[in-house]
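Dock magnesium ion; give full complex structure.
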Amino acid sequence: MDRWVLHCDLDAFFAAVEQLDRPELAGRPVIVGGDPASRGVVATCSYEARAFGVRSAMPLAQARRLCPQAVFLPVRRERYEEVSRRVMAILARESPVLEPVSIDEAYLEVRGDGPATARRLREAVRREVGLAMTVGVGPNRLVAKMACQMAKPDGLLVVPPDAVERWLAPQPVDALPGLGPVTAARLRRLGIETLGQLATAHPARLHPVLKSRVAEVQARARGWDPRPVGAGAPVRSFSEERTLARDRRAGQVLPVLAELCEELGSRLRRHGYRATQVTLKVRYADFTTITRSRSLEQPVCGDGELLAVARELLERHVPAGRWVRLVGVAAGGLVHRQDPQQLQLWPGDQRAQRLAEAVDRVRGRFGPSAIGLAARWLHQGRPQGRRVPSEHGPAGLPGGGRPVSPAGPTPGARGAPVEPAPGRRPRGGAQR
Ligand code: DCP
Ligand code: MG
């Protein structure tokens, strides 16, 4: 066999970078996500912390209860992106067919000796970057990814094509990527516990649970996956979200949305992307979570443009009086400035682009909060006042009810109102 797929995933990535930069943290439980006294969540944690039951997306307060001796650190996204670029460059040396799927994860298709390539890559990442990378090797993406999951941490697992079905058969249905926990639970209620049972069950028995997906899921349970590596643009999105220090009414979250849109806009521009879809995420005080999206005809990357859409989604879909504990904004349907097929989508008018670039230059020089959207100060009345940090609760803020005065341009309008900002802004918590 001369064609292999490698799934490469760095171990405990954010935490491993922190341990790399601060050697005194090596071997200790490290939790990345922010101040444990805040209401944020764990972005990731070192395997030393996982031994205590700490996991990604767990509230930081719970993580502190499980592992009080852990070192808690804020998210330093730019540093992780820099390390990620170095790792991806090492992967690209082995094959041009490379598809990064997240900040610490990529598929690579190689010809020749896949297992030997995997060993070489693991050594190179360890030697040149100083991080542990687990690699799964198989005949396709699905098998490579499952092998990687099983080999974690700091492992290598090769599943040759003729071993795939045998290797999959005893695994629990939950192990199959794309099968959610609810579906897995329903299958178990039918008496189907393993991928072997799933693969060989009569389709009619599965139909009530899997509906139109029966054939596809059964084929995947046997290790079938025709998706090529690197085909088309990988589905990508950028998102920012924040858990509020105290619940706020929906009508009072606009300043937080503005901060999130500034961070999102900066990231999009740094990476050369524009978004054709904006998604708003809101978690209510009772933890029910909604997401609402809007597609755009013109791709955008300006802070104010993003905020205008996010705000419209907020006002349309979220009753102003409801209590909210988390808000997030995501930019999807990304188009890259170097993608020739997307050129016709690039607006001829470059004013918004030039304004955004000027904003980035100011932030690069004077810090992220040197310049920002007027909406950040919406509830303070005047921009010179103390800024509204995202962790600020509703108390002390005037007004209530619906967001008032316009916070940004309407969709289609160009540019973002910018005003000087006092003070520093805390960096965001966990994001994915
Ligand atoms: N991440 C995040 N929020 C999450 C999950 C992950 O911010 N809910 C970030 C932190 C992780 C990085 O993405 O370091 C990569 O995610 P992985 O799922 O690969 O997790 P790790 O690399 O931390 O651990 P491992 O791959 O060893 O399981
Ligand atoms: Mg990882």
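Observed: Residues 9-14, 43-44, 56-57, 103-105, 152-153, 430-432 surround 2'-deoxycytidine-5'-triphosphate (ligand 1) (CB under 6 Å).
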